[in-house]
């Protein structure tokens, strides 16, 4: 598809309300909203406007993050969070990010939640989340991704919902050693499979642990237990590997 450069914009309050209204109804907004002066305004970053390819297609969210890093200065991470900007980027590529409207997620996947406890859901935002992950992990963020740009992916949900891996390069190295598929850069097939947790107040049975097989969900659970007694960001790769319970994490 041919490139179509337009000026990047941001959604104003009315635009975000209209966008949210459509998302809650599980319908896509009209395409004209992207450049509608009623709902949007030209984005200015460091006294400059920027252009963006409206028609660009992405293979996955790494591809999207790399492209945006090429046009949005990383210094934006140090500025006040611009909710309208990130919401507009989601709107711009909404067809790709929802599989042409067939898979519309909860609205915080497209309009950032930035107030109160719900601000912890920023990692779910389909554009800001990958942009920030690229800041922390570069191309290696691919291990957390779904192969489809419109899916968040279970590895992402499990490991990006806290700052464990971005705060510890050693823990990330252990994670890669266990779960990276070197043939494609994604997580190994089956490593995201869900294993039911014990009922409240219960404990993991040996049979449960064998079934869990050291999968990502269990890895997250075990690492959180480490956090209660140790500063995980200061622990070396070899020590983390020794701490992982056996035989589950052999």
Can you describe what's shown?
With 250 residues, the chain is mainly alpha-helical. It folds into two domains: 5-163, no CATH class; 191-250, no CATH class. Helices cover 38% and strands 6% of the residues. It has eleven helices and six strands. The chain has helices at 13-24, 61-71, 83-92, 94-97, 128-137, 154-159, 164-167, 169-179, 206-212, 216-227, 237-243, and strands at residues 5-7, 9-11, 40-42, 44-45, 48-49, 51-53. The strands form three sheets. It has a two-stranded antiparallel sheet. The chain is elongated. 32% of the residues are buried. The mean pLDDT is 87.
SSE arrangement:
Elements: E1 5-7, E2 9-11, H1 13-24, E3 40-42, E4 44-45, E5 48-49, E6 51-53, H2 61-71, H3 83-92, H4 94-97, H5 128-137, H6 154-159, H7 164-167, H8 169-179, H9 206-212, H10 216-227, H11 237-243
Antiparallel strand pairs: 1-6, 2-3, 4-5
Helix pairs in contact: 2-5
